[in-house]
Amino acid sequence: MHLTRRFFAVLVPTLSLALAAQAAAPETGRAIASRFNADPSPHFFPAAKGDKFYLYATDDASNTGKYWDSVTWRLYTSPDMKTWRDAGVPLAVTVFKWARPDAKAWAPEAAYRNGKYYFYAPVGGDKIGVAVSDRPDGGFVDARKDPLVDRERDVNAGDEPIDPAVFIDKDGQAYMYFGTRVPKVVKLKPDMISLDGPIRIVKIDGLSASDTKKKYGEAPFMHEHNGVYYFTFSSGWPGQILYATASSPMGPFTYRGVVIDYLKISTNHQAILEHDGKSWVFYHDALLPGGGGYRRSIAIAPLEYGADGSIRQVAVKPGQPND
User: Fold this and answer.
1) HSE of 272 in the Cβ direction (CA atoms, 13 Å)?
2) Model pTM?
3) Which residues are registered as beta bridge partners of 255?
4) Domains (ranges, CATH) in the chain?
5) Which residue has the higher pLDDT, 289 or 117?
6) Distance of CA 113 to the CA centre of its chain
Protein backbone atom coordinates (compact mmCIF):
# COMPACT_ATOMS: atom_id res chain seq x y z
CA MET A 1 0.00 0.00 0.00
CA HIS A 2 2.60 2.53 1.13
CA LEU A 3 5.63 2.62 3.38
CA THR A 4 4.04 4.76 6.06
CA ARG A 5 1.29 4.55 4.85
CA ARG A 6 -4.05 -6.95 -8.13
CA PHE A 7 -9.78 -2.61 -16.21
CA PHE A 8 -9.27 -0.50 -18.67
CA ALA A 9 -9.85 3.29 -18.51
CA VAL A 10 -13.17 4.61 -19.42
CA LEU A 11 -12.92 8.24 -18.38
CA VAL A 12 -16.64 8.75 -17.94
CA PRO A 13 -18.85 8.38 -14.85
CA THR A 14 -20.37 5.02 -15.69
CA LEU A 15 -20.59 1.85 -13.68
CA SER A 16 -20.00 -0.38 -16.69
CA LEU A 17 -16.39 -0.65 -17.85
CA ALA A 18 -15.88 -1.80 -21.44
CA LEU A 19 -12.67 -3.58 -22.33
CA ALA A 20 -11.23 -4.28 -25.76
CA ALA A 21 -11.94 -7.86 -26.71
CA GLN A 22 -8.36 -8.48 -27.69
CA ALA A 23 -5.47 -6.84 -25.85
CA ALA A 24 -2.69 -5.40 -27.95
CA ALA A 25 0.98 -6.04 -27.26
CA PRO A 26 2.36 -6.43 -23.75
CA GLU A 27 3.95 -2.99 -23.96
CA THR A 28 0.66 -1.17 -23.42
CA GLY A 29 -1.37 -0.72 -20.27
CA ARG A 30 -4.95 0.49 -19.90
CA ALA A 31 -6.75 1.87 -16.91
CA ILE A 32 -10.01 0.48 -15.65
CA ALA A 33 -11.62 3.35 -13.99
CA SER A 34 -14.76 5.29 -13.49
CA ARG A 35 -13.46 6.16 -10.02
CA PHE A 36 -10.17 6.25 -8.15
CA ASN A 37 -8.98 2.83 -6.95
CA ALA A 38 -5.65 1.28 -6.02
CA ASP A 39 -3.90 -1.86 -4.76
CA PRO A 40 -5.53 -4.37 -7.13
CA SER A 41 -6.41 -7.90 -6.06
CA PRO A 42 -7.79 -9.73 -9.16
CA HIS A 43 -9.25 -13.23 -9.09
CA PHE A 44 -11.05 -15.81 -11.20
CA PHE A 45 -13.68 -17.52 -9.05
CA PRO A 46 -15.27 -20.34 -11.09
CA ALA A 47 -17.63 -21.29 -8.25
CA ALA A 48 -19.11 -17.78 -8.03
CA LYS A 49 -22.68 -17.23 -9.16
CA GLY A 50 -22.87 -14.93 -12.16
CA ASP A 51 -19.65 -13.07 -12.89
CA LYS A 52 -16.45 -15.07 -12.48
CA PHE A 53 -13.77 -12.34 -12.50
CA TYR A 54 -13.41 -10.25 -9.35
CA LEU A 55 -11.21 -7.25 -8.64
CA TYR A 56 -10.93 -6.01 -5.05
CA ALA A 57 -9.31 -2.62 -4.47
CA THR A 58 -8.51 0.17 -2.06
CA ASP A 59 -11.23 2.79 -2.61
CA ASP A 60 -9.28 6.01 -3.21
CA ALA A 61 -12.44 7.77 -4.38
CA SER A 62 -13.74 7.78 -0.81
CA ASN A 63 -10.62 9.22 0.80
CA THR A 64 -9.99 12.89 1.53
CA GLY A 65 -7.40 13.28 -1.21
CA LYS A 66 -4.88 14.20 1.48
CA TYR A 67 -4.11 10.72 2.81
CA TRP A 68 -4.96 7.05 2.23
CA ASP A 69 -7.82 7.36 4.71
CA SER A 70 -10.73 5.50 3.10
CA VAL A 71 -12.53 3.06 5.39
CA THR A 72 -14.20 0.87 2.74
CA TRP A 73 -12.93 -1.40 -0.02
CA ARG A 74 -14.26 -1.52 -3.60
CA LEU A 75 -15.20 -4.42 -5.87
CA TYR A 76 -15.53 -4.79 -9.65
CA THR A 77 -16.81 -7.91 -11.39
CA SER A 78 -16.84 -9.20 -14.94
CA PRO A 79 -18.24 -12.23 -16.77
CA ASP A 80 -15.56 -12.20 -19.45
CA MET A 81 -12.84 -9.61 -18.76
CA LYS A 82 -14.41 -7.44 -21.43
CA THR A 83 -17.24 -5.68 -19.60
CA TRP A 84 -16.78 -4.62 -15.98
CA ARG A 85 -19.34 -3.66 -13.36
CA ASP A 86 -18.81 -1.58 -10.24
CA ALA A 87 -20.17 -3.93 -7.56
CA GLY A 88 -19.81 -1.39 -4.77
CA VAL A 89 -18.51 -2.00 -1.26
CA PRO A 90 -17.85 -5.66 -0.35
CA LEU A 91 -17.04 -4.70 3.26
CA ALA A 92 -15.73 -1.93 5.48
CA VAL A 93 -12.96 -1.85 8.05
CA THR A 94 -15.63 -1.75 10.78
CA VAL A 95 -16.14 -5.50 10.20
CA PHE A 96 -13.11 -5.91 12.44
CA LYS A 97 -14.45 -4.80 15.82
CA TRP A 98 -11.00 -5.06 17.41
CA ALA A 99 -9.57 -2.45 15.01
CA ARG A 100 -8.45 0.94 16.26
CA PRO A 101 -11.00 3.73 15.72
CA ASP A 102 -8.67 5.38 13.20
CA ALA A 103 -8.00 2.20 11.17
CA LYS A 104 -8.09 2.63 7.38
CA ALA A 105 -9.01 0.26 4.54
CA TRP A 106 -5.76 -0.50 2.73
CA ALA A 107 -4.54 -3.05 0.18
CA PRO A 108 -6.95 -6.03 0.22
CA GLU A 109 -6.53 -9.66 -0.79
CA ALA A 110 -8.98 -12.53 -1.32
CA ALA A 111 -8.95 -16.30 -1.71
CA TYR A 112 -11.41 -19.16 -2.24
CA ARG A 113 -11.23 -22.45 -0.37
CA ASN A 114 -13.45 -24.83 1.58
CA GLY A 115 -16.48 -23.46 -0.27
CA LYS A 116 -15.83 -20.07 1.35
CA TYR A 117 -14.42 -16.72 0.26
CA TYR A 118 -11.73 -15.20 2.45
CA PHE A 119 -10.84 -11.52 2.56
CA TYR A 120 -7.49 -10.41 4.00
CA ALA A 121 -6.56 -6.84 4.79
CA PRO A 122 -4.13 -4.73 6.81
CA VAL A 123 -5.96 -3.05 9.67
CA GLY A 124 -4.45 -0.02 11.34
CA GLY A 125 -0.98 -0.61 9.90
CA ASP A 126 0.02 -3.02 12.67
CA LYS A 127 -2.36 -5.95 12.17
CA ILE A 128 -3.82 -8.14 9.42
CA GLY A 129 -7.45 -9.27 9.63
CA VAL A 130 -9.31 -12.00 7.79
CA ALA A 131 -13.04 -12.07 7.02
CA VAL A 132 -15.10 -14.87 5.50
CA SER A 133 -18.29 -15.14 3.46
CA ASP A 134 -20.32 -17.67 1.49
CA ARG A 135 -20.16 -15.33 -1.51
CA PRO A 136 -17.41 -13.13 -2.99
CA ASP A 137 -19.35 -9.86 -3.26
CA GLY A 138 -20.37 -9.25 0.34
CA GLY A 139 -21.69 -10.75 3.55
CA PHE A 140 -18.20 -10.90 5.06
CA VAL A 141 -17.81 -11.36 8.81
CA ASP A 142 -14.69 -11.40 10.95
CA ALA A 143 -13.42 -14.98 10.74
CA ARG A 144 -11.39 -14.96 13.96
CA LYS A 145 -12.62 -12.09 16.16
CA ASP A 146 -8.95 -11.16 16.56
CA PRO A 147 -6.06 -10.39 14.17
CA LEU A 148 -4.50 -13.05 11.98
CA VAL A 149 -1.17 -11.21 12.32
CA ASP A 150 -0.43 -8.77 15.12
CA ARG A 151 2.78 -6.76 15.35
CA GLU A 152 2.76 -6.80 19.14
CA ARG A 153 1.76 -10.45 19.49
CA ASP A 154 3.60 -12.31 16.73
CA VAL A 155 7.35 -12.81 16.61
CA ASN A 156 8.91 -11.49 13.38
CA ALA A 157 5.73 -9.75 12.19
CA GLY A 158 7.79 -6.67 11.32
CA ASP A 159 7.27 -2.97 11.89
CA GLU A 160 4.35 -2.66 9.48
CA PRO A 161 2.56 -5.93 8.59
CA ILE A 162 0.54 -4.70 5.62
CA ASP A 163 -0.18 -5.73 2.00
CA PRO A 164 -1.15 -9.40 2.55
CA ALA A 165 -0.99 -11.64 -0.52
CA VAL A 166 -2.24 -15.24 -0.38
CA PHE A 167 -0.91 -18.00 -2.63
CA ILE A 168 -2.24 -21.58 -2.71
CA ASP A 169 0.26 -23.96 -4.29
CA LYS A 170 -0.62 -26.98 -6.40
CA ASP A 171 -0.07 -29.27 -3.42
CA GLY A 172 -2.74 -27.37 -1.49
CA GLN A 173 -0.42 -25.55 0.89
CA ALA A 174 -1.43 -21.93 1.40
CA TYR A 175 1.04 -19.13 2.08
CA MET A 176 0.60 -15.50 3.04
CA TYR A 177 3.19 -12.86 2.12
CA PHE A 178 3.18 -9.39 3.65
CA GLY A 179 5.30 -6.57 4.99
CA THR A 180 7.11 -3.33 4.27
CA ARG A 181 10.88 -2.93 4.00
CA VAL A 182 11.45 -6.60 4.88
CA PRO A 183 9.24 -9.19 3.11
CA LYS A 184 7.64 -11.85 5.28
CA VAL A 185 5.96 -15.20 4.57
CA VAL A 186 4.00 -17.59 6.74
CA LYS A 187 2.15 -20.81 5.97
CA LEU A 188 -1.61 -20.91 6.54
CA LYS A 189 -3.49 -23.88 7.91
CA PRO A 190 -6.18 -25.46 5.69
CA ASP A 191 -8.83 -23.39 7.48
CA MET A 192 -7.21 -20.27 5.87
CA ILE A 193 -7.64 -18.27 9.09
CA SER A 194 -4.78 -19.66 11.20
CA LEU A 195 -1.02 -19.40 10.91
CA ASP A 196 0.84 -22.70 10.47
CA GLY A 197 4.31 -22.22 11.86
CA PRO A 198 6.58 -19.22 12.32
CA ILE A 199 6.67 -16.02 10.27
CA ARG A 200 9.83 -16.05 8.16
CA ILE A 201 11.78 -13.48 6.19
CA VAL A 202 11.67 -13.94 2.41
CA LYS A 203 15.30 -14.18 1.34
CA ILE A 204 16.07 -12.49 -2.00
CA ASP A 205 19.63 -12.68 -3.29
CA GLY A 206 20.85 -9.78 -5.41
CA LEU A 207 18.97 -6.91 -3.77
CA SER A 208 20.65 -3.65 -2.82
CA ALA A 209 19.25 -1.12 -0.37
CA SER A 210 21.10 1.67 -2.20
CA ASP A 211 19.63 0.87 -5.65
CA THR A 212 15.96 1.80 -6.18
CA LYS A 213 15.67 -0.92 -8.84
CA LYS A 214 17.08 -3.57 -6.55
CA LYS A 215 15.38 -3.06 -3.22
CA TYR A 216 12.25 -4.37 -1.52
CA GLY A 217 9.71 -1.81 -0.36
CA GLU A 218 6.26 -3.40 -0.08
CA ALA A 219 3.42 -5.08 -2.05
CA PRO A 220 4.64 -8.69 -2.13
CA PHE A 221 2.89 -11.04 -4.54
CA MET A 222 3.47 -14.68 -5.45
CA HIS A 223 2.48 -16.65 -8.54
CA GLU A 224 3.72 -19.80 -10.25
CA HIS A 225 4.33 -20.19 -13.99
CA ASN A 226 5.71 -23.33 -15.64
CA GLY A 227 7.11 -24.62 -12.38
CA VAL A 228 8.87 -21.37 -11.47
CA TYR A 229 7.80 -19.31 -8.46
CA TYR A 230 7.72 -15.56 -9.15
CA PHE A 231 7.90 -13.14 -6.25
CA THR A 232 6.96 -9.63 -7.40
CA PHE A 233 7.07 -6.52 -5.25
CA SER A 234 7.28 -2.75 -5.25
CA SER A 235 10.57 -1.00 -4.60
CA GLY A 236 8.67 1.53 -2.47
CA TRP A 237 9.74 4.95 -3.66
CA PRO A 238 9.78 5.71 -6.53
CA GLY A 239 7.70 2.56 -7.04
CA GLN A 240 9.09 0.23 -9.66
CA ILE A 241 7.65 -3.28 -9.80
CA LEU A 242 10.48 -5.80 -9.49
CA TYR A 243 10.64 -9.59 -9.46
CA ALA A 244 12.67 -12.53 -8.22
CA THR A 245 12.36 -16.26 -8.88
CA ALA A 246 12.83 -19.51 -6.99
CA SER A 247 12.11 -23.23 -7.19
CA SER A 248 10.02 -23.05 -4.01
CA PRO A 249 7.40 -20.59 -2.71
CA MET A 250 9.52 -20.21 0.42
CA GLY A 251 12.63 -19.31 -1.55
CA PRO A 252 15.44 -18.46 -1.46
CA PHE A 253 14.75 -16.14 -4.40
CA THR A 254 17.10 -14.59 -6.92
CA TYR A 255 16.51 -11.05 -8.13
CA ARG A 256 15.73 -11.03 -11.89
CA GLY A 257 14.78 -7.49 -12.88
CA VAL A 258 12.04 -4.90 -13.51
CA VAL A 259 8.45 -5.71 -14.50
CA ILE A 260 7.19 -2.11 -14.60
CA ASP A 261 9.41 0.94 -14.29
CA TYR A 262 8.65 4.14 -12.41
CA LEU A 263 5.21 5.61 -13.23
CA LYS A 264 5.49 9.02 -11.59
CA ILE A 265 3.56 7.91 -8.55
CA SER A 266 4.90 7.61 -5.04
CA THR A 267 4.48 3.85 -4.63
CA ASN A 268 2.95 1.00 -6.58
CA HIS A 269 1.16 -2.26 -5.90
CA GLN A 270 0.82 -5.13 -8.37
CA ALA A 271 -0.89 -8.49 -8.79
CA ILE A 272 -0.71 -11.06 -11.57
CA LEU A 273 -3.67 -13.06 -12.88
CA GLU A 274 -3.13 -16.06 -15.12
CA HIS A 275 -6.19 -17.44 -16.89
CA ASP A 276 -6.85 -19.44 -20.04
CA GLY A 277 -3.21 -19.46 -21.06
CA LYS A 278 -2.72 -15.69 -20.69
CA SER A 279 -1.04 -13.58 -18.04
CA TRP A 280 -1.97 -10.08 -16.91
CA VAL A 281 -0.28 -7.69 -14.53
CA PHE A 282 -2.44 -5.28 -12.54
CA TYR A 283 -0.96 -2.14 -10.99
CA HIS A 284 -1.95 1.44 -10.26
CA ASP A 285 -1.04 4.80 -11.74
CA ALA A 286 -2.43 8.33 -11.72
CA LEU A 287 -4.33 8.08 -15.00
CA LEU A 288 -7.61 9.82 -14.30
CA PRO A 289 -8.05 13.61 -14.26
CA GLY A 290 -7.27 14.83 -10.77
CA GLY A 291 -5.27 11.72 -10.00
CA GLY A 292 -2.17 11.63 -7.86
CA GLY A 293 -0.49 9.93 -4.96
CA TYR A 294 -3.71 9.70 -2.94
CA ARG A 295 -6.08 9.37 -5.92
CA ARG A 296 -4.83 6.45 -7.97
CA SER A 297 -6.34 4.35 -10.75
CA ILE A 298 -5.91 0.66 -11.45
CA ALA A 299 -4.54 -0.49 -14.78
CA ILE A 300 -3.80 -3.78 -16.48
CA ALA A 301 -1.27 -4.86 -19.09
CA PRO A 302 -0.53 -8.19 -20.76
CA LEU A 303 2.45 -10.01 -19.28
CA GLU A 304 4.87 -12.14 -21.31
CA TYR A 305 7.72 -14.46 -20.42
CA GLY A 306 11.01 -15.12 -22.18
CA ALA A 307 12.25 -18.59 -23.10
CA ASP A 308 14.53 -18.47 -20.06
CA GLY A 309 11.61 -17.81 -17.72
CA SER A 310 12.31 -14.10 -17.43
CA ILE A 311 9.43 -11.62 -17.38
CA ARG A 312 9.54 -9.15 -20.24
CA GLN A 313 9.42 -5.61 -18.94
CA VAL A 314 6.05 -3.95 -19.51
CA ALA A 315 6.62 -0.55 -21.12
CA VAL A 316 3.55 1.34 -19.91
CA LYS A 317 3.24 5.08 -20.38
CA PRO A 318 3.38 6.90 -17.05
CA GLY A 319 0.74 9.37 -15.99
CA GLN A 320 -1.65 9.09 -18.92
CA PRO A 321 -4.14 6.61 -20.44
CA ASN A 322 -2.34 4.03 -22.54
CA ASP A 323 -4.67 3.61 -25.51
Assistant:
1) 27
2) 0.90
3) 244
4) 16-303 (2.115.10.20)
5) 117
6) 18
